[in-house]
Amino acid sequence: MKDDTKLIHTRLGRGPVNTVNPPIERGSTVLLPTREILYGDGKVYGRMGLTVQRELEAALCTLENAQHCRLTANGLQSIALAIGAVLKAGDHILISDCAYGPSRRYCTRRLSAMGIAATRINPTLGAKIESLIQDNTKAILIESPGSLTMDIMDTPAIVAVAKKHKLLTLFDNTWGAGLLHRPLELGVDIVMQALTKYPVGHADAMGGAVLTNSDRLANQIAMCSEDWGISLGPDDAYACLRGLRSLHTRMKQHESSGLAVANWLATRPEVDTVLHPALPSHPEHELWQRDFTGSNGLFSYTMTAIDDAQLDRFLEAMKLFGMGFSWGGFESLLISCDDQLDRIDGDRIHDRKGPLIRVHVGLEDPDDLIADLDQAFAAMRA
Ligand SMILES: Cc1ncc(COP(=O)(O)O)c(C=O)c1O
Question: Is the CB of 119 under 6 A from ligand 1?
């Protein structure tokens, strides 16, 4: 059976009313008939998740080809949970310097308060990360493509080094969404996803997931989740599950419209460099071709030299592209990113001429989106 069919048919058993979708059970208390069931490991309390959360976990296991899934309230919490579950005071973690900013902040600020050290590493090092491993290094955090600058990491090479030194690899697969990339199949130990993005797909809910094929790691993650009281509410879980059913179909449109807009931008005099892994001009295009099965609507570009007033005129002239955080929804978004860049060792755009812009191409007609950018460039030049 093909993946898209499987994802639509991950339906668990139903009660007497046989609806296609699971019921949303809003509940903390679950009334139970016997003491034995009360203290059993079934659906005994809202925080542990009820029917809709169980069904979402099953669908996500299908999506990522995983045996175990634990839900979280948002994507950042999935990263905090995965890392918190496998490290203890005295340990050290290597983190990609192009990981999502708040993930890096968690590693440097929160982990250091817990007595865990973190080193930010250049995402393009590949097997050369071996020289950065310390006696107490226990894990490597990978995110590929990296946030904002879209660096593709050589995951198989990093996994090989990690296995040699008995380190765990943790992968933020929000961009790949389990559809375009399956890190567990490359030997990665734990995958995290912000379900808030493509799985929800409508910018109206948040969620996260931690997935693994290891019984031992799943147990550690479950215990940490219990200790920290992590859960995903039924309404958000329902939105994640409903989004998953149409993920394949939406993603094809995001991919083709994203490429249309990226290719148009690459021809524009206002644009210096387009950072899209599916374009042959991308520095790690070959790694992307080897490890990914497609692309989506999220990419970046740098502009040619402009001043702040021109940048503001461009951003404020857009009519279809909204200015706001997040991505993966049906709507197109565009933000300037220079305020978020704080890489340690000179990334590929450190000598850029103009600002870095991140684009999310939604489900609108790409011709309309291109026309919107065209008129915003004209307003910028005026
Ligand atoms: C790559 C990546 N990982 C994780 C997150 C965090 O997700 P959430 O906003 O659901 O906490 C984001 C959010 O933008 C992201 O871009």
Answer: no
Q: How far is the CA of 180 from the centre of ligand 1 (A)?
A: 17
Q: Which atom of ligand 1 is found nearest the CA of 326?
A: 14
- Write the residue with the smallest CA distance to atom 8 of ligand 1: 75
- The predicted model scores a pTM of 0.97
Helices 75-86 and 215-228 pack at an angle, to 10 degrees, of 110
Q: 172 CB under 6 A from ligand 1?
A: yes
Element housing 4 (H / E): helix 3-8
CATH number for the segment(s) 247-381: 3.90.1150.10
- Per-domain residue ranges of the chain: 47-245, 247-381
* Phi (first) and psi of residue 321, to 5 degrees: -75, 125
Same fold for the pair 47-245 and 247-381: no
Q: The domain 47-245: what is its CATH number?
A: 3.40.640.10
Atom of ligand 1 nearest to the CA of 74: 10
Sign (positive/negative) of CA torsion 243, 248, 251, 256?
negative
The answer to whether the CB of 240 falls within 8 A of the CB of 56 is yes
Confidence of residue 14 (pLDDT cuts 50, 70, 90): confident
pLDDT at 345 over 80: no
- Tens of pLDDT, residues 131-189: 999 999 999 999 999 999 999 999 999 999 999 999 999 999 999 999 999 999 999 99
Position 346 scores a pLDDT of 64
User: Cα(76) to centroid of ligand 1, in Å?
Assistant: 6
| H or E segment and range at residue 72 | strand 68-72
Residue 235 a catalytic site member: no
Cα 208 from chain centroid?
A: 9
Orientation of helix 366-381 relative to helix 308-317, angle to 10°:
150
The three-class DSSP label of residue 94 is strand
Q: State the Cα–Cα distance between residues 183 and 214, nearest whole angstrom.
A: 14
Annotated catalytic residue: which of 70, 104, 120, 197?
197
Phi, psi values for residue 291, rounded to 5°: -105, -15
Distance CA 125, CA 173 (A): 19
Q: Is 301 helix (H, G, I), strand (E, B) or coil?
A: strand
SS3 state of residue 117:
strand
Q: Is 329 in the pocket of ligand 1 (CB under 6 A)?
A: no
